[in-house]
Design goal:
Length: 74
C-alpha cells in the first residue's frame, strides 16, 4: 500500500527532471540559433532509420567510442 502512495511523488519527480532537461535542450537550441526549417530538415525518428529500439540504444551507449561510430546517409 505504501508503494501506491509513492506514485504521485514519483510522477512529480519525473516531471521536474524531464522539464529541467527539456529547458537545457531548448536553451542550447536557442543559443545555436538553428532555424525551425533547418531543425525539421534534420529531424528523424532513429528507430525508423536504424531498424529498432535495441540498435538505437546501442548507438547511444557507444557515444565517444571510436570503434562504434556510424554514418547516416540520406
Amino acid at each position: 500500500m505504501a508503494r501506491l502512495r509513492m506514485i504521485p511523488v514519483a510522477v512529480e519527480f519525473l516531471k521536474e527532471n524531464y522539464g529541467a532537461k527539456l529547458r537545457v535542450a531548448q536553451d542550447a537550441l536557442d543559443d545555436a540559433e538553428i532555424s525551425e526549417k533547418t531543425f525539421h530538415k534534420f529531424c528523424f525518428d532513429p528507430v525508423d532509420v536504424f531498424g529498432g529500439d535495441a540498435v538505437v540504444r546501442r548507438i547511444l551507449a557507444s557515444r565517444g567510442k571510436a570503434s562504434d561510430r556510424f554514418w547516416v546517409e540520406e
